[in-house]
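Team,

Forwarding the record for the chain on the shared tracking sheet. I've put the sequence and predicted structure together so nobody has to dig through attachments.
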Amino acid sequence: MNRPDWMIRRRVLSLAVVVALAAVVAYSLGTLVSASSTSAAAASAGTSSAATTAPAGAPSATVTPVATRLASPAGIVGIDVPYKSATPTEYTGLSYTVPLDCGILGTCTLPVDVYVPSGPGPYATVVLLRGGPGGVGGRSYVASWAYQLAADGILVYSIDIRDLAEEGGGYPQAMQDTACAIRYARATAPSYNGDGSTVTLVGHSFGGYIGAIVALNDVQYTGGCLYGGSGRPDAFVGLAGSYDVAGGGNASDFTAFFGGDATATASVRAIATPYAYATGSAIPVRLSAGTADYTVDPIASADLYNFLLARDWNVGLHMVVDANHMTVLDPSGGEAAVFGAAQLAIDASRAQAVDGAFQRAQVVQH
């Protein structure tokens, strides 16, 4: 497939960004620790456990057997306590919403697959938002990567959302669905030995666009959720995200999402953009993109990084040299960003808890 002219023109700029942001590439990854090569070799592909129901307190589900999975990636260990396992447990097809209007599909509830590490926990918790727009069922392409994250000690909720206008989706429905998934993760994580107090939202490709709005908007999205609580994540990771609603080389994605082209849907696009937000309380944000991504221009990630940096957000950008739209998920890019952002969220939560305890102690003393 021939590369569009805009890709060729901007590829030089993408490579320049790598050089100009060399210091940023080494952004803080919390307490991320490098695993030894022997540990990486030992983390071979495996199958899910034989359990057939979810833990007590969680909705019942059937565990999908796993035939062949990618080996656990090298160089990554779990957060705080490394619960590495070649055989996480996988609960598939749970519902995280009430019945919703799904357009041509009729009424539906939205599915989530939960990937649970072994070990006592508590595990860092991630909601994984796949790219698209893919409609219900689109999450299947990130299954192996979700499994990898769980193998390295993260509790993963991989979700589908209504990201097609013809399936009742678009704005704000897709954002409402994502917020429902965050609430669901907070409420059910303890049943899987996970930490529901801090939830990191990870969005790949078009999921990065939707996730960024949910993360940057201080006003939370509501509607259709099974659980209450906060629907805003404690940290956000955008991987090869498509953040420009003008579309560029991805204009057809936004047309399918909004149900019309840029002219016909101009009014809603004006508010359905990450650049309309980042005005309230800041959360940690980590962006990653590949310099060889010819699906979504990596400049989109650099632009969002600069936007947030100018507003004093805790934001990092990692341009992964020679990574494409999918290989950016590999350990040096996607997984490192996930672990780093999750650790930042956990650290911030602990700092708030300590500060709150100190303030309460001061009140008692007075």
